[in-house]
Amino acid sequence: MKTTQRPFAVLAVLLLLTATGCTDGLFKDPSRLEFNTSGMDSDAAKTPFLRMGTDVLKSDGTNVMLAAGGRDAGGARRLVWNSSDAGRTWVPALFDGKELNSRPYAFIRGNGQWLALIPEDNRLRGYSSKDGRAFSKTGGALELPQGSTKLGALWTRNAWTVVTAKKSRITIHRSGDGSGWTSITPKGLPGTEDTSIYAAAASASTLVLGGQTDGPGGKIRARAFASGDGGTTWRDISPDASKAAPRNSGFRSVSWDGKAFRFLGFGWPEDSWPGQTARGLDASWAPGGASKGKWNVALDTSWADGEDDFPWVFGRSAAPNRQGMLTVAGNGGGAEYKFLQRATAGGWKETALPKIGREQFLYPEDTAQVPEGTLLATSFGDDGTFRPRIYLFSGNGTAQERSPQLQPLAPGAPVVSRFVSAEGKTFALGSIGRQTALWESTDGKDFSRHTVLTLGATQMFTSMSSTPHGDIMSGMEDAWNNSDTLIWSRKPGGAWSGHSGDIFSAEAGVDHAAVESTLSTVHGFLVAGSYADEDGSSTSAGLAMSKDGRSWKRIDAPSFAGKEDNDRAIHVLMETPGKTFLAGGFMEKDIKNAPVVWRSADAKSWTPVALAKVKGFTDSKVLGLAVGRTMTVALVYAEQEGKGSRYVLYGSTDQGKTWTSGTALPEALGREAYGPVHLLQNGDGFAVTGTMGTPQEQKPFLYTSPDGKEFQAKELKHGAFGNGSVAINAATVQHGKLLLSGFAGEPDSREQFALTVNVPR
């Protein structure tokens, strides 16, 4: 059975956009950067950049929570709305009086209030609200096992309940107040590798799980388990599905409709042939009432007929008289989405999506039940712009739009995604609206020279590197649920050449490939990142080379190849003054990530050099490299379940052959969720800058070192920062000055800045 990633899954590999500012008033601020925007007045330049989709749609009667995420011109943006009238009107939900700036893990309704679980510091913080509009932190935090999958976030037995799976291990996390959490290792579940649990649902008194067991001879059978004490003890309630699906069967989804648990899965009838796609399996089980403990199991071809790819089910919602769900079949750009509904009895029926324009797109993302009908959350796409759109489908099948108002940030100055300094020049890669350009400066202040880059509506650049051997930019051509790598490159004095498509020769239709770093060398252009195999069971480090920027060949070093539970990835490329190429990333061992720097003299043969893991942390990876005359510095990110995360700087004086652990930055600094951390060369020294704080309150930080051995904290101040949150998303050092670009202020009133400051000594 094939599956595909949810929309926006690919966006997890993009750098945050930043923006520059302009000077108001009669006197120019000498610290402000100046950009020439002549000729950038096209329709694309006048169209604000916006790519946002639905994260969560959850309802309780007429009370509805909607969370959306993505990016606008100011970078990453998250919004949460509440509606008390089934989507007719929406108001922003505030968390401790501020807009949320991270993606919610879950919204749970119980005991007359909402509980929002919000990721902070590698933990989940609880925020509660009676009306869904004013949330307050509950205190305490839920620490989830690293690498675990959420099966359900539920209310049962008078407690908030989160069910997670890590391979065959199921953990039940419970809290009576949303603050203190107890993690339970359940009794009565198989706990063996041959049994997989895929879904969870709950009524007020019963918690159920659904999945499958792989038996002898390749026999697969559907499994279900129930708990009446909140998840401590379990009993096997698995049905006998052999009459409906004698070949094989399994459950993939379960929901509670107010009367019974409704399971969906797959099954093969007796007359199926080898290689035939499974048909849908429908089952129901009631814990009480006249049908207590009884199963109804049957094949259901109304949503999976066995003729096409088996669909992945998501976005399910259920009420006593109505159910809704979304399915997607196929992979990549050929994936087919469907919105289906059914009454309590009977088969599923596809519901047509609202009609839109010829060059527009509507992607279903989630459903919720309200008294009037089914709410459908979609992302509406028009000329490269995407925004959430909500529809109510009433019982007669008519659709009424009930979308919140979303005003994208529309700065009047360029938005910069990357600063690059090389050979006495500084480049700024950015855009106005959806018009992309490359600015150039020789003094690190006046960016008067610029080149407008003609891109398609769904194309964007996010990164750039420059050396004496040429320039190279990377990004993506985004088809919403499938993305192709976009590469533009040029040799000194030459014209740009482009490549769009597969870069690591991964399987067609697999959207698990990502380019994270680029480098121009005497041997040609290099791009690095990672790619997954066809079934996503392992990830390999990806490295490809091109002489002309148009045709690319993957470099298959043995140490790049990933295996199951042994993933690898490259995050950064660099060349030392001694002409040694370095590639920083990680190699997984025993389900733990270890930092590694690969070395090469010719960019073809690569040898991994393991760095010592950060003491006290289980997982580490190299995210940055900076090269000086006598020292090479690596920025290592470390994390551990229940301990948060930390950045540590390592040094090498022998072209990356050996590494010594150095300064450990405070744990509160630069968490990945708050934007990139920039490791920069500053003459013979180095600097590290980025954003620290919490999702609701961020501020900049700066550490410097004269030799790369010991880093000291420095105060980073400027009038443009104001008194609110500050996010630094682009930085470089040129002529002894630190160039910064970002936004200051609250999410709904951010002010852009682009400025230069002296590097404090």
UniProtKB/TrEMBL annotation:
<feature type="signal peptide">
    <location>
        <begin position="1"/>
        <end position="24"/>
    </location>
</feature>
<keyword id="KW-0732">Signal</keyword>
<dbReference type="InterPro" id="IPR036278">
    <property type="entry name" value="Sialidase_sf"/>
</dbReference>
<feature type="region of interest" description="Disordered">
    <location>
        <begin position="225"/>
        <end position="249"/>
    </location>
</feature>
<protein>
    <recommendedName>
        <fullName>BNR repeat-like domain-containing protein</fullName>
    </recommendedName>
</protein>
<dbReference type="InterPro" id="IPR015943">
    <property type="entry name" value="WD40/YVTN_repeat-like_dom_sf"/>
</dbReference>
